[in-house]
Structure formats: structure tokens, C-alpha cells
Hints:
eight-stranded mixed sheet, alpha/beta, nine-stranded mixed sheet, Glutaconate Coenzyme A-transferase, globular, 709 residues, 25 strands, NagB/RpiA_transferase-like, 4 domains
Amino acid sequence: MKQNKIYNQLDDVVAEIFARVGKHLVLAAPLGIGKPNRLLNALYLQVKAQPETASLTLYTALSLDIPSAKNWLQQRFLAPFVARHFGVNYPVLAYVQDREQGALAANVRVHEFYFSPGSQMANPVAQQNYICQNYTHVARDLADAGVNVIVQQVARRGERVSLGSNPDVTLDLIERLGKAQQPCLVVAVVNPQMPYLSGEAERSINEFDLLLDDGGAGDQLYALPREAISATDHAIGLYASSLVKDGGTLQVGIGALSDAIANALITRHQHNADYQAALSLLAPTSEERALSLRIGGTSPFVAGLYGATEIVMDSFMHLRKAGVLVRQVYDNIALQKLLDDDQIRTPLRDEDTALLIGAGIIESPLNLACVQRLQSLGLLPLTAKLQGERLVLNDEVSLGLDLAEPDNIAQLSRLLTGQSLQGGRYLEGAFFLGSKPFYQWLGALAGDEWRGINMQRVSQVNELYGGQEMLDRVQRKQARFFNSCMLHTLLGAAASDGIEDGRVVSGVGGQYNFVAMAHALDDGRSVIMLRASRVQDGRAVSNIRWQYGHVTIPRHLRDIVITEYGIADLRGQCDEEVIKRLLAISDARFHAELLASAKAAGKLAADFEPPALWSRNLPARVAPLAELPAFSRYPFGSDFDALELRLIEGLSRLQARFQSPVSAALLILRSLLPARGSADVHQCLARLELTRPKSLREWFAARMLARLL
């Protein structure tokens, strides 16, 4: 047990850290919202002020920063939103701000293994200090790096705290350092706004050397603005949802594609006629329908889904509220098999007692371990105890321990019949990150809803081989692992985290773990999702390439790939068939180029001609989805108000026009002509302070926006 000290002043904790460790900090901080920003800022600024005598090496990931504008017009749009959404006193990370401005202190190094996507593409310092590693290897590598301080933002209830937002690496790292007898100061900072979650994340305050509980002034949780879901994203989500098996397991990442999957699953469950109509609109092929029938489904859920995911975010909240995320798992292999095979049900029936005995869950004669097991499952009261040769429930009810006696079995069956199993989980994860409504939902959970979420270490969530492989295999049946990539090659490799010149867009994170796990599970499937094309420098380019100079997922792990144009099942297929199946879901505008490359390499017969059906793979094919109410741009709501959403539409159009010199010139010319502005256009311009332009730049911006709106 650590010599715990509790403080109510930030400066005292900072002083204590330097007093115990010295002036050379090798510090580990969790990714995302697990960072105690104010403490990190205080440590960074103190080291920065002592360039000759102090140093800081920080290991972390996903250093979140409030959105910043790329130009003056975006700044006018963003400033009021940022003030409203993040608050005027949000503690931005000082090292992030300095690094962004090229002014990171010379005696400070920041190593991250995952960037906020795209945020560090133009930052050489961040790129040079990036560490490429699987999420599950981070604790091992940090222990080897000689970490001497761990800081963590926590929730507190009396003498207990919850690492709910980030038990992921912290638990593994503390355990590794302890086994190596490597001294390390573990510091917790209480944030009253942090939801208190259970599972392995729940710890005693005595596991920390220092704990700061100062009321959390200014410690607003970083909340992601909810994203829009395009028709393209909805199409991908619809295809993905048809591969999910009722009674199975779900893992999804974060972003619009994940929200699209959740929306499609909810529509499938609650409004199945609308769901079937949307699928019909996409006109899946007979092969895609057969795959769905074999490994997925399109009917409403009966058994529901269990979530086993690295990141817990809004999608799981929506699925839980909609009655989809309801499959419960228990830490007992025999019991889990009985439930999954529908041999027993909850509440228990009279005949279920014999099945529990046959599976060894109830032992004869009854013993202490068995009684405790039944109590943990909610089948016996906590007051039940063994006395002599009998199990005593209260002053009036008891039974013999020998279940070879029919009377004892009959009496036990009467006690168990009608009892509902407790202690099950519907979701496990390693960290959470999401919107304000999501944090509010987590914070309000109670009872079985609260106990049903198990936040735990990433080595358990992201792998099968954490010490309970057989149990994980039973719990994670029919697992579907959905992850996205940026580019995909025709031979089956995915580029998800970087580009071919070596620059890192985000990081590997846990994607490789989940792809590998899908292949390790007998009935698991890995599904890589991507948009078939994108606009770059004003022109459309394919996201499916013949080859690419960077790989995140190697082609020998190819499985299922989804674009807005369909599903390609690549598992076990030869290279020629893989190429054909990926061409069938790629953008038709690039078929000729891709075919030529494949034929030149001898991977496709020279006389192969693409079926006429493939020519339908154009953006117009999925556009009608946008007209369906269930597949709107913001099915789960938005953090922008109606006026801001209107402005986003106009600003997006403006940005798109200026990606092409010709379209930009035409827009500028048209803005010289008089235009009649409606009341809502006037409101939009007022929101950007453009109703009375003060310069030629503002005048042109106002006229162009008015025309586009």
C-alpha cells in the first residue's frame, strides 16, 4: 500500500512531485480525457522556466485541443461556438499550444503514439517524436523507457476512485513497474465532472501516492462535437449493419462511419420496414445478400448485441437506449455457454436448476465457493450461509447440501425458479470519449445499467491472450470488428494511419489488434470501411489504389471491405478474385486505370472486361439516401444550432468552390451581380459580422456566401 497524501491545492502537488522525483520527469499521461490538463500545464510551465536544470519527457497520445480556424472567416464562425461548447475557461494543454506554434520548450520532448487525426501532418517536431506501436504494447514500452511519474484524471466516491475514462494503459503500466520494482510516483487528480464507472477501473485511493481533490475548477471534460453523417457514410453503415449477427459481439471505432453503423442497426431493430427500404435502394448484389444471410442478418434483434470495444463512445449509448445492446455476458464459461445456446433463460425456469447442476455451476454437495457463486449471480440472498449440513437462507428456510437427495434438489429449484441472473455485462471498454450528452448519460447510470459497463485494461479488451482466453472466446461470439481506413490496395492491404512519405495522420492504435483477433476467433470477422473516393485539390481521386507506399493492415489479414458501393468478402480468396471483388465496390470513374495496373502486373487476365453492373458505382447512386428521414445528416442531434448548420453548409460550398480555380473565378464574378437575400441569409451574415462589410475582403465574402446560401 502506498503512502497516500491528499491535497486540495494544485501548487502543493506540483511541489511534491518535484520534491520526490527531482527535476527530470519521465511522465506518462493517458490519452484523451484521462489527462489532468491543469496539472500537466503546471509541470510543463515549471520545467520550461528552468531550461538549464530541469527536463520533461512526456509519453501520451491523443492530445485534444479545441478547434482552431484556418482563416478569418472560419474564426468568426468558430469563436462563438467554441466559447459555448468548451467554455471560456477550458484548460487547453500548454505543450500542445507551444508545439503548434513551433515553440515547444527545448528541454521538453513529447512522444505520442496516436495523434488527433490530421492534426500534426505539418508539424516536424511531432512527426519526429511519434512512436509507432500497438496500443497493447504501450505499457511494456513505457516501463522500459523508465517512466517515473504517472498522472491520471479520475472520478471519486469516498475512499474509491474510478479510472473510468482511461484504465487502458495505466493499470498495465502500474502492474509492470511494480513487478520490476521500478519506483514511480502515481498521481490522481479528481474531476467532479468525470463519470464514475465500474469494473477494473474502480480502485482504492490508497493505490495512488498523491491525490489532488480541489473541486476541479475549470476541469470541463473535452466533448467532441457530434459529426454529420453523409449519404455516403449512411450507405457504408447500412452495408455494415447487415453483417451483424443477432446475439453477437460488436466493436466499432469513432467518427461518422461508426455513428452510421449505429444508426443503421437501430433502424434495423426499431423501424425494420424503413431499413429494408433503404437497403433495397442500395440494390445489394445476390452475393452480398447471401453473405448477409450467412454471417449477419437484417431482421430486428432478439438476443441483442454485446459490446467489446477499445473506445466506448456515443454509438454504444444510442444502441443501449434503443434496446440493441442488451446481450449479457458472465465470467463463467459453463454459464455463458448455457445462455448462448438458449438452454437456460433468465428469469430461471424450473428445469434450469438441473442444467446448472449438470454444467457444474451448482455443485453437490453445496459448498462455500458454490454459494458465493450463486450469490454473485443474484440467485441466492447475500444473507445465505452454510451451517453444519444445511444451507440456511433465513430462520424459516433451509435445505440439505446433498443434491443427490431429490427433496433437496426440489427445494433448491423452488428457490431458484423465477430468479433473474445478475452481474452480467453488456459492454466492456478500455477508454471513453464522446459528446456532452454521452458524458451526462454515463454520469447518470445506476444499478444494473451502471454495473453492466466494465471499464478495464486495454490488454484485456484488445486481445484474447490476457489470461482468460477461453472465457473471451465464449463471450465474444460472432464478433464483428468494424474499423476504417483512408486507402486500400487492390491486393487487400489497408493504409489507416499514415501516408507514403512517412508522415503520420493518426496512429495504429488498436486497429491491428482487432483485425488479428477477428482471424483468431472461429466466427469473428474483420470489416474495414472506407469511402470509395474523395475530392483532393478540386478533383476526385480514388481511395482504392493499385499500390500504396504505406500499410497499416497487411494483405495477408484481408477479410471484408465495405465502401458505399457494396461489400467485398476477401477472406481466403486468390489475388485475382480479390482484385475483382474490390473493383466491384470501387468508384467507376477509376476502373480503367485500376484495371490497367492489375493487368500490367499479370494479376488479372488481359482479356478481362468489367461487368456492366460495376458502371453504376457513382456518387449519384447513394444520394437518394439523404432523402430518407431515418438517414438524415444528424440522426443523433447536433451541437450546432440551426443557423450554424446553415452556415456550415454555405462555408463548405465556399471551400469546395475554391478548390478549383475555374469554379472560384465564376463565383467571384457572380458575386458582382445583385442578389436578393432572404431573412435567413441575412441572419447568417450577421452571425459572421458581415452585414456591414468593413473591407473589400469582407464585401466579397458576404456576396459569395449570400449567393451560395
